[in-house]
Description:
six-stranded mixed sheet, binds ligand BES, binds manganese (II) ion
Amino acid sequence: MTNTDLRTRIAAELPGVLDDLARLVAIPSISAQPEHADDVRASAEAVAALFRGAGCPDVRVVEAGGQPAVVGHYPAPEGRPTVCLYAHHDVQPTGPVEEWSSDPFAVTERDGRLYARGVADDKAGIAVHLAALRAFDGRPPVGVTIFVEGEEELGSPTMPAFLDAYGDELRADAFVICDSGNWEVGRPSFTTTLRGLAEVVVEVRTLGHALHSGMFGGVVPDALTTLVTLLGTLTDADGSVAVDGLTTAEVAHLDYPPDRLRAETSLLDGVELVGTGSVVERLWAKPSLSVLALDATPVAKASNTLAPVARAKVSVRLAPNQDAAAALAALQRHLTERAPFGARVTFPHAHAAAGSVIDVDGPLAREAVAALGEAWGVEPLRIGQGGSIPLAGELAARMPGMEVLLTGVLDPHARAHGIDESLDLGDFGKAALGEALWLERLGSRDA
Ligand code: BES
Ligand code: MN
């Protein structure tokens, strides 16, 4: 096929692919909520049916003790390489539904963007692969393995077991993780670094039972004040992380003007940035620490009572090359050693996932840079990202030397995980064309 043909083919496939994306989005595949387990299963079946319909001869739904994933193979034409195309079909919870501008599980178009939970992160990734394969009528010019995970948003807890069981059939000449983002709308980008993640639920206990705050306040510490004091030791006055043992990496340098950052984040006038260093260093290279949630008495139910126990969920994004287990240990050590008044500190939950450093220098990656440049009409960038994809680190550890490419259709306006998540339709079409052009280029290479 000529490139003009492929452009025409992708354009012809896009409306149908977007309809299929809308059908996938309508299934609330929230992996973190057990009441949606049937939906996660139905979502996997729907993804499998789509690739079966797109000519994949042997798609199946498989798991290794966790959430259902989809795996399928288009065999390689004689002498041609094989690529593995990855995305995930599980999504984050919606948050307060009443805050959404439209139903989170019904795709709605406004001003060139589609709005819904998972429409960008990461059901769009599935749809990019689907569009590229349909452009070849289900007979791609290279071998293609499809891998669509169902528990990425949980931190991929069973990925090690999954790769023990299925890793051999996922091994490929290049592995495309279509779950990342671009520097800005209209600018294709390869992600070269992702941050890791260490998170804990920290529980503080000071009393055996609640007490009248007037009778005993001033002599015995309550758990909530003690927890808040402890959390305050995690950052410096300028908002930098103050946990010993966390490191900083080298990442891509790009200029992120503070005005652009304010506009993209909705930072309120007069509220300052936290941390030090360039903006992208703070986002991609350095650790960041956020208290995500508290278990404490709600204000509406408060009485003048000293609380015996309080909990917080603390999340630390890690430098891309930091050992995640070491970082988690450092965080737990800080919270244990710095607890005021000898309060009892425990960790009902603790989890770490490694970041990754990915070069884009291999022969198949270079073809991808050229293909995306052609599809988008502009030179791709190499960028970092502050988010985490545990699979990327697992692949690097288990399949050293395999070319890994991190692409995607998130953009700074996508609000992944947030209210009113959205996808830019123009970028989506370009991403699909870029992937198709890449497969076409690889089809004339020897394996
Ligand atoms: N697609 C994101 C990762 C991402 C976000 C890449 C932003 C680039 C830019 C992914 O689905 C995700 O959210 N991952 C989780 C992983 C965690 C549960 C271990 C994350 O980063 O919070
Ligand atoms: Mn994702």
